[in-house]
Amino acid sequence: MLKISEKVISGIIAHAKKDAPIEACGYLAEKEGVIIHQYRMKNADASDIHFSLDPEEQFNAVRDMRERGLKLVAVYHSHPITPARPSKEDIRLAYDSDISYVIVSLSEGSETLKSFKIRNNHVESEKIEIVQDQQEGFRNGLKQIAKGRSEDENHSDLKASISNRNRSSQKTESGLVRFYEIPPTLEAEIDELEVQIQRYNEGEIPARELKARRVPFGVYAQRTKGTYMVRIRVPGGCATPFQLKMVAGLSDRYGNGSVHITTRQGLQIHDVVLKDIVEVIRQLNEVGLATRGGGGNTVRNITASWNAGISEDEVFDVTPYALSLTSRLIAESDSWLVPRKYKISFSNSEDDNAGAIFNDLGFIAHVKNGAKGFRVYVAGGMGLKPQVAHLLHDFIPADQTYMVAKAVKQLFSKYGNRRNKHAARLRFLWNKLGRDKFVELYHQELEELKKQPVEPFIVANMDNEPAPSPPIEPVEIRSPDFDLWKHRFARKQRQPGLYAVLTPVLLGDLSSEYAIELADFLINFGENVLRFTTQQNLNIRNIPGDYLGNVYQVAVAISDMSIGPELMANCIACKGANTCTLGICLSQGALQAIFRKLIKSELNLDEISDLKLHISGCPDTCGLHSTADIGFHGKAARKNQIMYPAYNIVAGSVTKDGHSRLARKIDMINARDLPDFVAELLNHYLNKKDKYASFAHYIDDCGEADIRIICDKYRDIPDFDDDMKYYFDWGAKEVFSVVGMGIGECSAGLFDLINVDRDLIKKLREERKSFTDSSKIDEALYKMTFSASRMLLITRGIEAQSDREVFNTFDKHFIEAGLVDGRFKKLVTVAHNRDFEQLRNMEHQVHELTTSMEALYESMDDSLRFPSEKEKQIYESDMMDRTADNDEEVFRDYRGVACPMNFVKVKLDLAMMTTGQTLKVLLDDGEPIENVPRSVADEGHEIVEQKKTVDYWAVLIRKG
Amino acid sequence: MINFTEAQLERYSRHIILKDVGVEGQAKIMSGKVLIIGAGGLGSPAALYLAAAGVGTIGIVDSDTVELSNLQRQIIHFTKDLYTPKATSAAEKMEALNPEVTIKTYYTFVSADNIRGIIREYDFVIDGTDNFAAKFLINDACVMEGIPFSHGGILRFNGQTMTVLPEESACLRCVFEEPPPRDAVPTCAQAGVLGSIAGLLGTIQTSEALKFLTGAGTLLTDSMLFFDILTMEFIKHKLGKNRECGLCGEAPTIQELIDEQQPVCDLRPTC
Fold first, then answer.
1. pLDDT of A758-783, one tens digit each?
2. Which residue of A has its CA nearest to B100?
3. Which residues, numbered 12 to 51 in chain B, qualify as contacts with chain A under a Cβ-Cβ cut-off of 8 Å?
């Protein structure tokens, strides 16, 4: 007999439905004889008739079970269209006669769940008993205690509230606390979005048009076709427990069952299908959460210091300003039509822990002559070319906040660059106009506004006080673990007797189950008890000291990181290449590898709990590497023509009013050795940290040198044949590659990179006109040729380091490939040789080349291809220079290339080689490995060896 | 230098896979130049297969326009092409089949005056003409210019073909001294022809052209292939160079090209 909790059963069915028509699969684990936990896994076969568990997920699940004291008792999978009985395949593959095989069938419109034991191909069915979940019971217990205070209609069963959308809005409003006001026009806008989605489904409008409609609603397409992410506005990271519960419930029902916390303190629901989008948005709207402005060229989520209102050191509580400004700005229709995103932030002290200085508009709290106000910064930003903001006002009275934000918005709207979204952020306008002009135009806008009647900007006070009488009993815990946790994560608030508790969330992903558990617990302490932080964690506030034991129990239950050092909570990794189309490296895998290394290390991480370690998968700063103490951004490097994942190392940023600066690039490290690098660097720092006021000081003094010395150790990586690990990214199952990289939905890092050169060329071309000094002319012409050569290399996945590499790769990938006229070959050689006299003679060609490159750039399509490539994509023109080096082994990856094209390509490669030279090819298992080597041998070449690796083959061929 | 695009690799994959063609062979095809004289029954399949194979440059000579009676066997022309020049109609189809090949059209009869200038640009010539005068003119011009060619002819249910490598192998005049007397051999118009044998012979000629370009196999030289489709007999007659040949023998008498007197078919629609 198999005892399964009710919740797990509904979880299995939900998984089956979600993954249909593909078979869903996973593990079931028990505690004390009852299955209480389900591990949803990916069907690695992605098939509708069979399944196989992903090995990495299996491993993780088993480890997780061990940690939680659970035991694996069953494997479940779904039969989307066939009955709930084991198929022949199921019987054949049943490897363990001790565990149960649970099959859920969705056939004929109803769900049937059955369990079987399979021994020696013999199937025996097994009875299932449904058990009330213990966890659920615990929560219900809490709820019952909470009754009488918060168990009103709005806090009643979540499922009911989700399915019953037709509740009267009056009731909704009466009981709900909202932190900002959603304009009444939003409902009509949601209706309009619904119409557009309908039209898209009926083929009336193209995907591009739908994109233009959905992105400003915070709805982004994900890498998996047909699934979307919904981003929710949560100003200052303030949400009520009930709002968190609602988001979690929606994700459970419509999304991936997880709540994602962003680095701008917002929330995201992932994996929502198009037909559910409007429903999700409407239900969020009902609880006072808007998605409008979650993306696109809009006023984005306004951030604020996570500790505003409770910090001992703050100037004053800035949260109410972030909230009121949100309510005002999102009621204005032009907030959806700015030239590019408009990001605003509030910090409560000079420490600027909200990073106001890195926003389009940043407010840092100050008091002048006893009056509250702000120092105002403008035109900062992250992205590919991060910039520290510039001072706009040394002080403005706090009631001017809205006017300033509005004036900047109008200035931006009027003068911003709408044509080129890659040079559209406010900082580009600042750079274009220069300080004086920008400030002058801004003041014009401000004066204009002052002439008009404007509603006064009123902010409400936010109370940070204990709930009158929490309806649960305090739990007293005496244990070293508790004390350590308290030391690490609980901070005394300004309000006597109250505590704020940091609850780390790994990579910002909190499962709905845990989110609901937490929300149910927090409801006991009032509405103002929760902040999402820019480090993608949760901060719980206004907890009376007596209740820290209760918080500890919940925190440890929902966050494994609560038992670790705080350092890890402060780490950030962007989504990276596993979901982001711009991603180069698997930043999240790298961060987890670093964690594993640090946990195993002897380092005293509590000494450096404030250290910020941030990782981005590409040069774009989604992982905030530019504002890290030690930051990394992914790149592709090569050894012997084979690509491997690597990271550029940046370090030494400072975030403090008046002293802020970005992290600077120091060196690079291959991804495989990254964890060792981090451990070694931290070790150096721990040994010396007493001498320095901050990590930035350390970097300035000797840290930079330390980094270079460590990097030198790891600079030379093994050849592919000697250690393939170096060519696999963290958590990747395939050899590293940048194939499939495309243009992101939101940012456009690649374009920013291209624009560096485009802008440089424009600038140089302008400057050239005024130059008379020949050395200056030489330099300008050289730089123009260089930038023209480099600007589109990135579209081929090349990040050339040296000038030599730039010219060589340009020659190969653009001139030889026929994308650029062959006559420029000479120019490139001349520039390469720094033959300035000749270069001056060829000046007209320099200009022609820059014009050609600009034209090529303009003609590029969304997949980074140029028109001529559609017809003539030169196949591996780098084969040309290979024939010369007879003994060099040629490497080709033909996995994913079907028969007979793989053989055709191998023949082509061999044709370009000389007798005796070797070719190593990777081929898929099955037909390719059965056919290609045989055919190659038939033609008189020698198959030196063939080895199977995971699910593909490496074949070494010597040309006959 | 072999520059194959992804699309080319795929398009020509079935050639590249062939051991005797391979990458190098396909590259030769793609840089090859073949002239088809006559866009009729023989020229139709030749033009299509050469274009499909990716022959770099294909010339097509024909001064006629498409007639209704052509359509029974000249499969490169469609009903919609009636009364358009055959060279145009053929080029259009070849272009559609494979935009990568360069097609040159010549709206003319080959004659003693122009033929040498035309064939000189090509590596191989396919004779798809319908009369002996033209066949001998092509033979003489190719031998004089040293350009290999495939001779071919069809009538009723029969066909004949041979490949000529000037100097090396027997030419048409080694076998037949001169064209048969006028009206000794009926034309297609008079005697008729089974449409499909145009395809049969035209593709044999094309195969010879492709073999020549790639160097694969042995050419149909010093032998004439005859077939009779009614009995399905294919006979290969061994021949040899004729020392007495007026064109390529030891004492050649033919020094310059002349337009033979024999007119083209009396009735316009021909093979």
1. 888 988 988 888 888 888 888 899 99
2. A871
3. 13-14, 16-17, 19, 22-24
| pLDDT at residue A786, rounded to an integer | 92
Active site residues of B: 188
Question: Residues B220-236: pLDDT tens digits?
Answer: 999 999 999 999 999 99
pLDDT digits (tens, 9 = 90+) for A303-337: 999 999 999 999 999 999 999 999 999 988 888 88
Q: Report the residue of chain B nearest A932, measured CA to CA.
A: B17
> Two tokens at A731?
């958590």
Which is it for strands A344-347 and B57-61: parallel, antiparallel or unpaired?
unpaired
**Does this model's pTM top 0.80?**
no
Short-list B99, B225, B111, B23, CA closest to A909: B23
User: What token pair was written down for A622?
Assistant: 């989604």
Q: Do A904 and B9 touch (CB under 8 A)?
A: yes
Q: How far is B95 from chain A (nearest CA, A)?
A: 15
- Give me the DSSP letters along A23-64: PPEEEEEEETTEEEEEEEE-BTT--SS---B-HHHHHHHHHH
In the predicted structure, residue A751 carries a pLDDT above the cut 70: no
Residue A908 in contact with partner chain B when CB distance is under 8 A: yes
Q: CA B148 to CA B34: how far, in whole Å? A: 10
Pairing mode, strands A100-105 and A112-119? antiparallel
Chain B neighbors of A873, CB-CB under 8 A:
5-7
- The answer to whether A584 and A749 have CB atoms below 8 angstroms apart is no
Three-class SS state of A957:
strand
* A893 min Cα distance to partner chain B (Å): 15
Length of chain A: 960
CB A775 within 8 A of CB A840: no
Cα–Cα distance for residue pair A614/B65, rounded to 1 Å: 75
Residue A361 clears pLDDT 90, i.e. is over it: yes
Query: Which of A873, A874, A908 is closest, CB to CB, to B23?
Result: A908
Name the pLDDT band for A579 (thresholds 50, 70, 90): low
| Cβ atoms A909, A892 nearer than 8 A | yes
User: In 3D, which of B193, B118, B129 has the Cα closest to residue B161?
Assistant: B129
Read off the DSSP letter of residue A719: P
Structure tokens at A461: 């006070």
Q: Are B10 and A914 in contact (CB under 8 A)?
A: no
Rounded to 5 degrees, what angle do the CA atoms A243, A539, A458 make?
65
Closest CA to B4 of B32, B34, B26: B26
Specify the length of chain B in residues: 271
Sheet hosting strand A344-347, strand order edge to edge: A303-304, A344-347, A361-368, A371-378, A390-397
**Closest by Cα among B135, B154, B156, B130 to B268:** B130
ipTM of model: 0.72
Q: Is A937 an 8 Å CB contact of chain B?
A: no
A868 touches chain B (CB under 8 A): no
Nearest-5° Cα angle at B181, B176 to B185: 85
Q: pLDDT at position B264, please?
A: 46
Q: Do B17 and A877 touch (CB under 8 A)?
A: no
Segment A367-414, tens digit of pLDDT: 999 999 999 999 998 877 788 999 999 999 999 999 999 999 999 988
Interchain CB distance below 8 Å, B17 and A904: yes
HEC states along A503-523? ECCHHHEEEHHHHHHHHHHHH
Tell me, what DSSP letter sits at residue A423?
G
Residue A900 forms contact with B (CB below 8 Å): yes
Contacts of B16 in chain A (CB under 8 A): 904, 907-908
Q: In what order do the strands lie in the sheet with A530-532?
A: A490-492, A498-503, A538-544, A530-532
Query: What is the tens place of the pLDDT at every residue in A92-151?
Result: 777 777 889 999 988 766 788 889 888 877 888 888 888 765 444 333 333 332 232 333
Query: What is the full DSSP assignment across A826-845?
Result: HHHHHHHTT-HHHHHHTHHH
